[in-house]
Amino acid sequence: MLLDTASLYFRAYFGVPESVRAPDGTPVNAVRGLLDFIARLVQDHHPDDLVACMDFDWRPQWRVDLIPSYKAHRVAEEAPAGSTAPDEEEIPDTLSPQVPVIEEVLDALGIARIGAAGYEADDVIGTLTARAKGPVDIVTGDRDLFQLVDDARGIRVLYPLKGVGTLQLTDGALLREKYGVDGPGYADLALLRGDPSDGLPGVPGIGEKTAAKLLDAYGDLAGIIAAAQDPTSRITPAQRKRLTEAAPYLAVAPKVVGVATDVPVPETDLALPVEPADPERLEALAAQWGLGGALQRLLVTLHR
Hints:
Elements: E1 2-4, H1 5-15, H2 29-45, E2 51-53, H3 61-66, E3 75-77, E4 88-89, H4 98-109, E5 112-114, H5 121-131, E6 136-139, E7 155-162, E8 166-170, H6 172-179, H7 183-193, H8 208-218, H9 221-229, H10 237-245, H11 247-257, H12 279-289, H13 292-303
Parallel strand pairs: 1-2, 1-6, 2-5, 6-7
Antiparallel strand pairs: 3-4, 7-8
């Protein structure tokens, strides 16, 4: 089971009241909410391995170089010129201090936490999925990861509809029913349609339904581009014009939208822990941040 950790703690932050606070008054709603999410996921799905995948760079420069608008609206503060540090993401004031606490608690629990410099959590998930020898459940609120769905390999996305108690089990059948594409086809659909939340312009005038029809008719993005360049194809003049004008975007978008599968991730034990890796540190964190019932529920679930 691979967790898109930021996606889950954002959901926890907005789903758990900010009145949930540590003894010193600091909000810990995201921390406690995430612990409850993990407990529920482990209880319901019994994974052998569990990885909290992290955004070491939420807006990698190599993606920005290809599409400058990529996540540009989420930048709170740009990194200094020449710096290797990522731009600072716009995060609610009371969430950002909770992220280091989440990281410390996961480490003390012994839950594998993996990121890679210059890459997003999506890319870590893509790489670990490519390496996996057995079935994989990816837990994320980000539809971009639907591109990894592969029924033959048992790879599916658990997409939270309400908390993590109500999950959309996203497999190939659901993708075909809902979007008219399979896993790899979803990436082509997404880049044609565009995604304002990621700053991806898409092809103007081509929405989700039109993109799905084009993919059904021509197979994949390469087939659609070839048809647009073929004067004898049945693509409408309006669509041909749109696709031709969008050629520079379509040349780079697959690399931006596509999840990397060859990220240099560290070798580490991915097994779900039965006991905390550092009980004393965990006890100190629990007392400092008032993690109470949420942490105890997770510990009981892991011990089973």
